[in-house]
Amino acid sequence: MPEAIYNSQCKVLYLLHGINGYEGSWQDLGGAVDTLEALIASGRCEPMILVMPDCNKWPFKERPTHHRNLWKCVFHYGKLCREHQLEEALSDLIDMIDSTYHVSECAVAGLSDGGRMSANVANRRPDRVRAVGLFSPVLRRDQLPQDTTQRYAVYVGKQDFLQASGKRYHRRLDKARFPHAYILLRGGHNWRMWRRCLSDFMERI
Fold this sequence. Notes:
By secondary structure, the protein is an alpha/beta fold. The protein has a single domain (about 5-205), classed as Alpha/Beta hydrolase fold, catalytic domain (Rossmann fold, 3-Layer(aba) Sandwich). About 40% of the residues lie in helices and about 20% in strands. Helix 3 packs across helix 8 (about 190-205). The longest helix is centred in the middle third of the chain and has 18 residues, at about 85-100. It is globular and about 40 Å long. About 30% of the residues are buried.
């Protein structure tokens, strides 16, 4: 880590993976570091710290590797979900990063199931999270933002099988008169789409 990061204020972006991802997903499949470096080099983004935690909800040995295994895991561990514990751990992680670096502002973004968790973390920590990116999100009706000063961006792919979920959330935000950006992109529920979401969101924050 460059010494300048320790001695000057910086932004932190927490990237949460989807339901069958792992802590390396955003780098291995999403090219997060390369995207950030390219945006910084072109002057379209400020330097920031990327934090990519493991947000899985089931034991390591039984994590899904394909869709048949995925749905088995979802149903088997649905009632034993560690989601609240994970959100508490992410809140603690925010405090740890804050105490280690001179953090000026936090942002959180997540894809699919990670979008739901991002919205929950933002509601849990409105004191720190200022920007929220939801990429192909799966969201419940009760997950409306609690702080109108937070900046939300909702990304939906035209060919995404979860397109309806993102659109419903956008309409609920409109009905609640919550200011937000709604971005409709060409793409499906895949990393090609989420790379574009990430690049746009990094520029926004």
